[in-house]
Amino acid sequence: MERLTVAIDGPAGAGKSSAARLVAKRLGYLYIDTGAMYRAFTWAMLQEKIDIGDAEAVRALTERIDIRLEPLEDKCRVFVGEREVTDAIRTQDISSRVSSVSALAVVREKLVQLQRNMAEGGGVILDGRDIGTVVLPKADLKIFLTASVESRARRRYLEVQAKGGTETLEDIAASIASRDDMDSHRAVSPLRQADDAILLDNSELNLEETADAITDLIQQRC
Ligand code: C5P
């Protein structure tokens, strides 16, 4: 069976990562979480106390940073240099800063290049905001995965609660809406559905059903 290059884009909390990871595992594909790369860059900026307005320091960081993703069972471990940041990049602090960092052209140039290199050869699923429009405009299959803000916030809320977090449903809905707004209105590579992407609204689907729908789409193309 042909091994495709699959692009999944969509807003925050649509379940792209969980669904993509599950589908990749089923099909033996490599899963590349591009959002984790922007989060890792944001983490490194905080670590090095680099101000987002300091263009020269940000550019210098793009030249020396080493971001790596390592698949492990159904997880994707994230490293900056030798330091594992898999959990450290999932904090609310990083979530509230990452959209400003990902709006910087110099950061996008660096990470898009890395993503294209990782996707070479097919048998890959990348999820993000600009995969079908910018990173892999010739992807074999493009999916735009979305859901209502309410259902996305509710899912995140349940995840946060399961981990013992204290954020309220309202806080989470506001944070998701703010990230969507910044990601869709930035000048460089804004979040948008590629003309040739298939729209999948999973407001009424659970994770398994979302993964089934994506798997079917991939198998129809093979
Ligand atoms: O996917 P996740 O929600 O972890 O992504 C975090 C942030 O990284 C997004 O809100 C967006 O600002 C940025 N991002 C991006 N382009 C991508 C993936 C993520 O700008 N391809």
From TrEMBL:
Keyword annotations: ATP-binding, Cytoplasm, Kinase, Nucleotide-binding, Transferase
Compartments, record wording: Cytoplasm
Catalytic activity reported: dCMP + ATP = dCDP + ADP; CMP + ATP = CDP + ADP
Gene3D superfamilies, A to Z: P-loop containing nucleotide triphosphate hydrolases
UniProt KW Cytoplasm keyword: yes
Domain Cytidylate kinase residue range list: 6-220
Enzyme class: transferase
Annotated EC: 2.7.4.25
Record family assignment: Belongs to the cytidylate kinase family. Type 1 subfamily.
Name this polypeptide is given: Cytidylate kinase
Species per Swiss-Prot/TrEMBL record: Megasphaera stantonii
